[in-house]
Amino acid sequence: MPQKQPALRPNARARQTIVCFSHLRWGFVHQRPQHLLNHAAASYLVYFVEEPVAGEGPSHFRMQVAESGVIVLTPYIDPAAHQIEEQHKLVQDLHRSIAGDLVVHWFYTPMALQFVQDIPCDLCIYDCMDELSAFRFAPAGLRDLERDLLGRADLVFTGGRSLFEAKRAHHLDVHCFPSSVDVSHFGRARTAIPDPADQAHLPGPRIGFVGVIDERIDLDLIAQAASELPELQFVMLGPTAKIDPASLPHAKNIHWLGSKSYAELPAYMANWQAAWMPFALNDATRFISPTKTPEFLSAGLQVVSTAVPDVVAEYGQKRLVKIAEASSIAADLRASLTSPTPDWKRAVDRSLRQMSWGRTWNAMQGLMASRMTMPKELAHA
Q1: Is the Cα dihedral 232, 233, 238, 241 positive or negative?
Q2: Are residue 116 and residue 30 in the same domain, yes or no?
Q3: Which UniProt keywords are listed (predicted)?
């Protein structure tokens, strides 16, 4: 029996609506889209449209409602059907349900233009959080579609300074909003929290990492550090993506503990002695601004990172994060285990006071409001 399409409109009252198109799934890793759109849901009706999954029968959205009120829509489409045409029909149906609203299209993936470009909106935003064309298995046509999206967007936000410098030549209204942090959430790690069961048996000292394990991670560097520092335990949290799990280095002091929920992370960090970010220096990391940097600092952990450009510029030059090379990784990780100085703690907290996802969202919302009232021909002048 075909699944009945749920009512897409929770109420009939006209309001401001954001329809977000994302390459990331809402339930995958809690990061920039979730932080910003959870804040947006306080004043907008927010739909988060994911990439499709295979499903039998007529195409339909599976609808889930996040605690914040964000409505997560997953397209279920028969593999034999034309994927783009079916997504177009579903999004058209969604727009019929919000007719009369002031509608914002919010893009994380330019690929969505394939089924959205002829559907009108009142404001078009590209929140560029990564240089997706540099990632492994980037879809064909991504660069061309991004160029089209940059031509269509009223506002462009970037997730870091390097992305800002790359995109500002292609749009007149680009604004840099680097990764922010929920200081109170990760600040819990500065207090005593019981050690999670799958970590509690590990001896110390522990140095931890949390994030997606993919082509951006330097697996050779992890193996090297574990070999040179057998007395340390390396705790690695996060899902594996786009790489063969068999390629992960294994040693007695490397512990791949898998994905953890956002709520669980402070408990793990509270029982680490330091954190590190062993990023590979390649095309995929040239433009990243890791959300985990301020999260580790909020947790009170000293951080060692490879020389990712945005980390160097935003944290390394301010001496908030130690920038390491492969030749110095062992010495730098050992040094990170020493008690932080009062000056470092003050500098970290001073920097963190300027950061919050709420503050970022309020600044974005202000720009959106000003563009809503600006004639389109002036907005694109």
Answers
A1: positive
A2: yes
A3: Transferase
pLDDT digits over 35-53, tens only? 999 999 999 999 999 999 9
State the virtual CA torsion across 251, 255, 257, 261 in degrees, nearest 10: -140
CA 288 to the chain's CA centroid: 10
| Whether 213 and 119 share a structural domain | no
* Strand, coil or helix: 225: helix
Q: Give the span between the Cα atoms of 99 and 29, in whole angstroms.
A: 32
Angle (nearest 5°) at CA 138 between 132 and 143: 65
Instruction: Looking at 122-252, list the stretches that DSSP marks H as alpha helix, in order from N- to C-terminal side.
Output: 142-152, 161-167, 183-187, 197-200, 219-228
Residues 175 and 291 reside in one and the same domain: no
Question: With 70 as the cut, is the pLDDT of residue 298 above it?
Answer: yes
Q: Among candidates 290, 71, 347, which has minimal Cα distance to 160?
A: 290
Say if residues 72 and 46 touch (Cβ distance below 8 Å): no
pTM of the prediction?
0.90
Domain coverage including residue 210: 183-352
Residue 2 maps to a domain: no
- Would 9 be classed as within a structural domain? no
Q: In whole angstroms, what is the distance from residue 232 CA to residue 51 CA?
A: 40
What is the C-alpha to C-alpha distance for residues 301 and 307, in angstroms, rounded to an integer? 18
